[in-house]
Design goal:
alpha+beta, seven-stranded mixed beta sheet
Length: about 650
Amino acid sequence: MARKKNYNKKPRGRKGNLTKLAQPTALITGTVDMKQTGKAYVIRAEGGEDIFIASNNTYHAIHGDKVKVRMFPKRPGRKPEGQIIKIIKRQKEQFVGTIKVFKNFAFLLPDSQNMPVDIFIPKSDLNEAKNGEKVVVKITDWPEHSKNPFGEVIKVLGIPGNNQVEMQSIIVEHGFPLSFPKAVEREAVNIPVKIPAEEIRKRKDFRNVFTITIDPDDAKDFDDAVSLRKIKNGNWEVGIHIADVSYYVKSDTLTDKEAFNRGTSIYLVDRVIPMLPEKLSNFTCSLKAHEDKLCFSAIFEMTDEAEVKTQWFGKTIIRSDRRFNYEEVQKIIETGKGEFSSQILVLNNIAFKLREERFNNGSINFQTQEVNFELDDEGKPISIRIIEQKDSNKLIEDLMLLANKKVAEFIGRKRRKQQVKTFIYRVHDSPHPEKLATFVQFLHKLGYKLNINSQKSLAKSFNTLFRQIAGKGEKNMIETIAIRTMAKAEYSTQNIGHYGLAFPCYTHFTSPIRRYPDMIVHRLLERYINGGSSVNQKKYEDICVQTSEMERKAIDAERASIKYKQSEYMLDKIGKKFYGLISGVSKWGIYVEIIENKCEGMVRLQDLDDDFYYLDEENYRVIGQRHGHQYKLGDKVRILVKKIDLSKKQMDFEFTE
């Protein structure tokens, strides 16, 4: 029987947790970034330097909790420090891990590296879980003076190492459900598929206009299609057609509420966890070739130079002529030959011109590499390849950016004597000055410069930097730190523009099958086109907060699945040698990324027996104390795979000849 569920009760002060420093001062709100050691940092809600929290001042907070911090007076040469005094909102109460069963009790050893304590489980709350199994545990209590929280097993996942068990562990660990409630599935199944004749009559008919979809080869949820036709005046009519999900999923239905809770689809290495039930995401709404489909479209009259002359937004019906994958379109772009090649080359030219204009206006060209796994029938990785973003990918990207930008401008641009109506924007703030200054110092140590005189010069300087580091060892680390220097893009009803894209107005309109904000944008756009009044801002700001949070969780889940599959791929390569690049240094060790597959592991300093090595943090290197040998960021090295810890998704390397 579970203990009384007071895990989320209002915390009381604990004298034993007070650090004896000078009298505490200001109160700050932020989010906990918990470390394995039990210490933590609080990321300030308003920005600025993170606050260090000693392990005895964490107040039973866990990773991701929203908390209130009492600041200690700043001490010379020390980072800001404080004490958590209140937990405003718990990030989670369910944890995944391996259970260790004793005679009268058990402990959950959490998978998360950000959970520094094990969870105590009374024997009565094991619920048939067996020693060594992966389980889901819900925290039920955390007694004031107890190091460990109490919990109960709510689901047994299975044996660690099994692909299904491990992927389900990642899904649950990051706060997503494993299945849809039966009532939601029933509701989705009962949504009519047949398009009524009266609905077709209300819409612009594009079924006889050249239309295609371009997606990854393994895609099933086709959100978007593009159309093209020549106009008598010599210009082009370019159509961006987006699945009309809001026609099928009405506000406040069970399906809508479930989509709100999920916020987004999640793309793990071997599966998609959809935001909408499969009947909707892969069939009813998906823009399959040779089928009549309902869309919400953005139609532009454009010149050969990609200048927009006129625009129209509204409901349409389309019939895609062909489903292309990116590789097929890339071949047409490179050779000029293939089915529908003339239309594809026109679309590619327009996309190129749009891209050129965007970069001239200060858009930042982030080019992070992604990996793709070939899996066997049991989900085990056979090979890893690095994905290049080619012109075919950029073609679709730039047309979608155009639609998103123009929809946002249509609603968000101030008109004379008219108040801007409530809308959901995709916003990206400019970099925080402190973080930017730190990044400039970091680059200076590596011999690179950044012009920060103005926002436009900064953006152009970033693009110059990315060109300079292409193919160099330090590329990955610099790009990673550059992204961390930037503010995070998020959803908001307050339009502050999108810094990274250099757009004054931007939204997400083009992916309503897999992103909840896009579905809401469709509803608002339809409402305002039809003359509807503005909606309640607070309600829609709450949607922005929820979906921004779920997006971050989905990204973390996707990264976790990649790390797991990379570790699994390297399991049978223990003892083998690879070339790699030093991607990071810390006081514990040297991070190395293998060149051919982007698998990253650590060479621990304690394993380097030719000298005593120490970290030169300012210059991003480690140095041998006696002989002065250096390992620095970007160095090409040869490593031997020493150890793989699949449960922690960690790899240990050692240097070799």
